[in-house]
Write a structure and sequence with these properties.
Layout: E1 6-8, E2 11-13, H1 42-51, E3 53-58, E4 61-66, H2 67-80, H3 84-100, H4 111-139
Antiparallel strand pairs: 1-2, 3-4
Helix pairs in contact: 2-3
Amino acid sequence: MAKKTSSHGSYEVGHGKPPKEHQFKPGQSGNPKGRPKGPGNILKTVAKHARRKVTVIENGVEKKMPRFDVLVSAMLSKASKGDVPAARLMMHLVLMAKELEGEDLQSGYTEADLAVMLEEADYQAMLTELREEASDEAGS
């Protein structure tokens, strides 16, 4: 079999040498859409959405805050009212943040201190439940 090459003016047309009118023009890509993007990084996506600002009303004043700040504020509020899971989550987040920042985990609190704080949070939650039950029984 002979190679099919034809002369197209002064340019040899053949394998790997398309005719001039079918070649890519300067500035034109052979793959205009490019390689499709991958699924992305979940941490970057979460961080991007957490930084978006939302409008909140705090003490009667309207202000814009990042979503993450609103989330932390709400969790701290719940934790301070005796919500044990919220308190545990906040402690866990603080420890993780310190670990990510490369700080040593010496927060001034020992493991015994943290255990006492969790027990106190459990106790406060139990008291809150007992008060609610007592008020429900008194109202009945």
